[in-house]
Amino acid sequence: MRRGAALRPALRRPRRVRAERPAVRRRGLPRRVRRDGRGRDPRRARRPGPRAPPAGGRPAARPRSPPRPRRAAVVRTTAVVPAWNGRGWLPGLLASIDAQERPFDELVIVDNGSRDGTADWLAATRPDVVVLREDRNRGFAAAANRGIAVAHGERIALLNTDVELAPDWHARLADRLDGDPRLASVASKLVRLDDPGTVDDAGDRLRRDGVCEQRGAGRPDDGRFDVPGEVFSACAGAALYRRDAVLAVGGFDERLFSYLEDVELGLRLALAGWRCGYEPAVARHAGGGSSGQLARPVSGWVARNTLLLVARAWPWRWAGPVVYRQLAWTLHAARERRLRAHLGGLASALPLLGVMLRERAALRRVAVRRIEDVVAPVPWRGPTAGGHPDSPE
């Protein structure tokens, strides 16, 4: 069976419906009803108003999760935007969403406890947007999961607040996802917002030393990244996902909070048999839109989440490359005088290391592909490694 075939609904009519049809045909016509002087049916009385609660009151109702927003007749794609203190970026993003050649069917913005009035501004200026409010910053992963949970679209466009999409972005990525049932996601070509001639991310690649390469980062946009193909995973700052595939593997891991949560999701999707396409539709990305306001610097989050990812998924025989990379990163952090932040990030991973190690067996049991086939043996040191100044990517 091809991947995705199980997601198609059955075409047969339910048996219970067929069994009830003869009874419906034998039912007689209603008797004629004498109407009042105004032509109204006297049997149709007004519904009584709400009853008063009994003496003593009723116990407080258990709080419910917010209902899924009301949808249009057909919803194919829902755009989900996790937002945290990103009001200054939203006008540019929303303008590019409005300019799409193929409009999104639904737009959900999850406000992660912003202190800049994002939710109120949206309520006043964009009544067409579904706004979900969090009481505090729960991280990109949690906000993305909440948006995906209420979305009605079978495709989910995940977007950062600090991106601006080319007009053909949605159409090209949707056609690519629909055209290949093996794909769970499609990555796009991110270029720098202030310098569109420089690539920011053309799809991610995971190496056996635990490093995630942003393909093309810092390279000139000279056409070498304009060929569609496949990559390991997509940068969730501007990517399209198959909703059912994401939900089937459990969504984003909220324990990672922010950074590398899209790579970790890509790893679980790949182990489950899915693939990630690359379509060079352009999204201009500022980068670090709200990350400067986090208590921990980005480098600390990357150090923490890299350690958690490899602890959960890596075979022990890959420990050598991981140890080499961790020592190299620590030395580099010391040279750049950010050793304290780097070590703080590593230390923050310690409370979760035991949990991740215990989940290794469960991850292997549900995998349909070997991790050796998912994480290719690409060079991880020297000038041929991705990200090196002398490498082509």
TrEMBL record:
Keywords of the record: Glycosyltransferase, Transferase
* Pathway assigned to this chain's UniProt record: Cell wall biogenesis; cell wall polysaccharide biosynthesis
Question: CDD domains annotated for this entry?
Answer: GT_2_like_c (cd04186)
| GO MF annotation: an example | glycosyltransferase activity
Chain intervals with Low complexity compositional bias: 54-63
Identify the stretch(es) annotated as Disordered.
1-73
InterPro entries listed in its UniProt record:
Glyco_trans_2-like (IPR001173), Nucleotide-diphossugar_trans (IPR029044)
Where the record annotates domain Glycosyltransferase 2-like, the positions are 79-246
Biased composition range(s): Basic residues: 1-16, 24-35
- Entry-linked PANTHER family: GALACTOFURANOSYLTRANSFERASE GLFT2, RHAMNOSYLTRANSFERASE WBBL
Family the entry assigns: Belongs to the glycosyltransferase 2 family.
The molecule here is called: Glycosyltransferase family 2 protein
- The organism is Paraconexibacter algicola
